[in-house]
Amino acid sequence: MKTKKFCLTERQMPAQWYNIVADMPNRPLPPLHPVTREPVTREQLSAVFAEELIEQEMSVERFIDIPEEVQEIYRIWRPTPLVRATGLEKALDTPAKIYFKNESVSPAGSHKPNTAVPQAYYNYKQGIRRLTTETGAGQWGSAIAFAGRHFGIDVEVYMVRVSYDQKPYRRLMMQTWGAQCFPSPSDRTASGRAALAKDPACSGSLGLAISEAVEMALQHPEDTRYCLGSVLNHVLLHQTVIGQEAVAQMEMADAEPDVVIGCFGGGSNFAGLAFPFLRKRLTGGNPVRVVAVEPASCPKLTRGAFRYDFGDVAGYTPLIPMYTLGHDFQPSDIHAGGLRYHGAGAIVSQLLKDGFVEACAIPQTETLGAGILFAKTEGIIPAPESTHAIAAAVREALQAREEGREKTILFNLSGNGVIDLYAYEQYLSGALKDYTPTDAEIRRSLDRIA
Amino acid sequence: MKTKKFCLTERQMPAQWYNIVADMPNRPLPPLHPVTREPVTREQLSAVFAEELIEQEMSVERFIDIPEEVQEIYRIWRPTPLVRATGLEKALDTPAKIYFKNESVSPAGSHKPNTAVPQAYYNYKQGIRRLTTETGAGQWGSAIAFAGRHFGIDVEVYMVRVSYDQKPYRRLMMQTWGAQCFPSPSDRTASGRAALAKDPACSGSLGLAISEAVEMALQHPEDTRYCLGSVLNHVLLHQTVIGQEAVAQMEMADAEPDVVIGCFGGGSNFAGLAFPFLRKRLTGGNPVRVVAVEPASCPKLTRGAFRYDFGDVAGYTPLIPMYTLGHDFQPSDIHAGGLRYHGAGAIVSQLLKDGFVEACAIPQTETLGAGILFAKTEGIIPAPESTHAIAAAVREALQAREEGREKTILFNLSGNGVIDLYAYEQYLSGALKDYTPTDAEIRRSLDRIA
Asked: Binning pLDDT at 50, 70 and 90, where does residue B173 land?
């Protein structure tokens, strides 16, 4: 009998997060204040984020304790299984061994609760009563709704109107967990009202939703803070529970990955799996390859520039040193909504610049095709985002077959696609299109960075 | 640290199914041929079902080996976790300990694949190339689509048209796994065409969809068979992996249930959890209570009669000895589509008659309220069907609080509700209604049994 799943006990769940900054040869440059262009201070950030999260954002400590209250909620779904994809291997007739870390088993169906829970916890500890945030496709909004509920914090989610109308299941999930979900632009904020005055039928954007959520937090400093589901250092930090578990599970499987793969939007699921493996490499251990997979329609890692740029469209956030396509780059309306972000986080950008991370861009017709193959062979319907990691794993496995050599591949199944099945319908009906920006489009967008 | 989840290793997964018939003081009466009213023979059934499944349907062996090929696919999601519902306990402020078996973690999101996989396997072994079946809300259809894919068997699902139109996600799930899904009535069968001729806008019923699926199988005896997701003995048999795992996991938790609870449609998730515990009682062990929970709108166990009755509306199936509301009883259109069935399986009916099983009926406003509480405290959004088991567990826990005594409760979380979130929307908006049939309605329906 070939073991299929490698499972840890609750006692083997990591008790600390791993902060890769401690091991980086070149630490990321500091974020800059949007107006003064000086490094932002803790004080400036504290109007927006909880204190403890700012500490973590700036920390250079190698390990940070996970509070017992957070671990208790993690145990609802963690440790997650590491799975040998024997069905996929067989279908590809490959000598490669393929493993995946299954983060789709969380209540919200993705890796997002790994950071939603500590973010809600630290805000709760500080006496914050309300969290505001934005969401595109809704994975992050539902994760923070779930997390807020556990600490009795009210959650207000500004959801891009086009998704709010098209994806009612994610909204219903948030409401079932007790969160309030508003279509953005809304009439609750000045930025929302301005957008509606300009165009009453405005379908919204992630950048505008961020503006609404931040504005709401700034207006209620006594009891409200803002939170974000990716990009930032503390978010990546929280996700390292994924990779730490996977390191232990690969040891159980008596295997060592040659390549570790994650899909890439803001960087959190990728970093969560990859950083604990990259630690071994940074500290002189095995030469594991680490691959970030982005959609061909939003190719910041492979075709963007390394610049200081804003995190949002309107330019309210600090300037972050990152690979970017320009903060007002408008990615095509692909199905992997979680990967439609113009920039990468500061840590991953530095690691890419320094050659510790590889990147590749794959069009969505190829990724969804790989997703269907995975659904048929491994039984789990993957999120459109996660199909990017699967497609890259398939490429690696087919290359191993061509070269007739063994290879051990590990990828992150960041979420399931049960609420995203329309993407598969489009693929199956042949209606799915690919979009690739031209060099001129990217250049123009980069030129707009102030 | 209180342990939250009790997990078995793959090697601890049961290697046999448990057949409770071997331990019943009164075995169930035989099914009768719909025309001759004589006990049906293996030969008569073999036009519809695979041979090995007919053997299991009639078996009195206590244990039946699970083929290695089936175990291999079970290992995609099994063993499933047993979870201590600490969050729910805290919210109810109860001295009771509440555990649940989490069957919602399967690829299709419910317990249904436990029987879909062996049914597909035995048909495949017999050289069958195509399986037909019906589905209401779609849980069963998606499970058999998943299972058929693994053995290269084509799957044709006849889905009640009103659900086909209203629940596109389940249909898309089936199609993603490669099954064909037709709205019923369809123009592919004589029974479908007859219904459409009578009413071109006919919205269908489960009974009609059964007729279409059975007809399709009967017309292609060379390579096609029919399959069913509940009610029958062999289906309940396959589900006993649930309870066997739970028996071992309760031992890990050093606990013994006082009451074991499952929601009840045709009986498969209920029997799957309860029978291995009931075995202890039937063989002189602990006096565990076993409770089947049905919707107040479809109260066959609490208000039906013990009769020979048909499994379908049209009267094509064998007559089964069961608690029934009459085979053309029309249950209200409640959200727990999987519980809208007029009769109970033969084994459970006999056990209820003999006092080994208790039954209770709960209205859906109470069950969905319990479902929301569960989603908020335990993080998992339960299927509307499963909320019936949760509501009964909540009643037991509140009774324990009133009486100030300890009690150990175990229930089956048969599925998740991610694709059924509209039920929660209706509940949250106050639009959800309860329906209870009158005594006269039930009497009239029972009088129509020939």
From this structure: very high
Closest CA to B309 of B320, B301, B298: B320
Residue B72 lies in a domain: no
Count the neighbouring beta carbons within 10 Å of the beta carbon of residue B10: 17
Q: How far apart are CA B159 and CA B135, in angstroms?
A: 5
On whether both A267 and A335 belong to a single domain, the answer is: yes
Last residue of a domain, one of A228, A245, A277: A228
Place of tokens 């920006």: A437
Answer yes or no: are the C-beta atoms of A411 and A108 closer than 8 Å: no
> Residue B375: closest CA among chain A residues belongs to which residue?
A177
Token pair of A126 as six digits: 């500080």
Q: If you count them, how many residues does chain A have?
A: 450
Closest CA in chain B for residue A375? B177
Residues B409 and B305 in one domain: yes
- Tell me what ipTM this predicted complex has: 0.92
CA B255 to centroid of chain Cα atoms: 26
Locate the chain A residue with the closest alpha carbon to B88: A150
Q: Is residue B204 part of a domain?
A: yes
**In this structure, is residue A49 part of a structural domain?**
no
CATH number, position B182: 3.40.50.1100
Q: Which of these three, B226, B250, B281, is where a domain ends? A: B226
Whether residue B300 sits in one domain with residue B393: yes
Measured CA to CA, the distance from residue B363 to residue B365 in angstroms comes to 6
Contact A13, A78 (CB under 8 A): yes
Report the run of H or E that residue B2 belongs to, with start and end. Answer: none
Model confidence band, residue B314 (pLDDT cutoffs 50, 70, 90): confident
| Domain identity same for A287 and A155 | no
**What is the per-residue pLDDT for B1?**
66
Residue whose pair of structure tokens reads 């993080």 in the numeric block: B379
Q: Is A75 on the interface with B (CB under 8 A)?
A: yes
Give chain A positions within 8 Å (CB) of B418. Answer: 109, 169, 173, 418-419
Task: Take residue B165 and report the two structure tokens written for it.
Answer: 């139109």
**Judgement on whether residues B49 and B191 belong to the same structural domain of the protein:** yes
Is residue A40 domain-resident? no
- Distance separating alpha carbons of residues A211 and A314, to the nearest angstrom: 7
**E strand or H helix at B395:** helix B386-403
pTM for the model: 0.95
**Token pair of B389, please?**
């088991």
In B, which residues are within 8 Å of A421 by CB distance?
168-169, 172-173, 176
> Beta-strand (E) ranges in B89-214?
97-102, 130-135, 154-160, 180-184
pLDDT 10s digits, B117-140: 999 999 999 999 999 999 988 999
How far, in Å, CA of A317 to CA of A204, rounded? Answer: 18
What is the Cα–Cα distance from B417 to B153, expressed in whole angstroms? 28
Asked whether residue B46 falls in the same domain as residue B86, the answer is no
A8: which 2 tokens?
């840890």
Taking the C-alpha atoms of residue A435 and residue A324, their distance in angstroms, rounded to an integer, is 18
How far is it, in rounded angstroms, from Cα A372 to Cα A387?
9
CA distances for A41 relative to A30, A47, A64, A189, angstroms: 10, 11, 21, 26
Residues A156 and A264 in one domain: no
Host domain of residue A361:
5-12+67-109+233-447
Residue with tokens 């632009």: A185
Residues B262 and B170 in one domain: no
Distance of CA B423 to the CA centre of its chain: 19
DSSP letter (8 states) at residue A435: -
Q: CB of A350 within 8 A of CB of A28?
A: yes
| Residue A3 with chain B: CB contacts under 8 Å | 10
Q: Is B15 on the interface with A (CB under 8 A)?
A: no
CA distance B315 to chain A (A): 36
Name the percent of chain A lying above pLDDT 90: 85
Domain count, chain A: 2
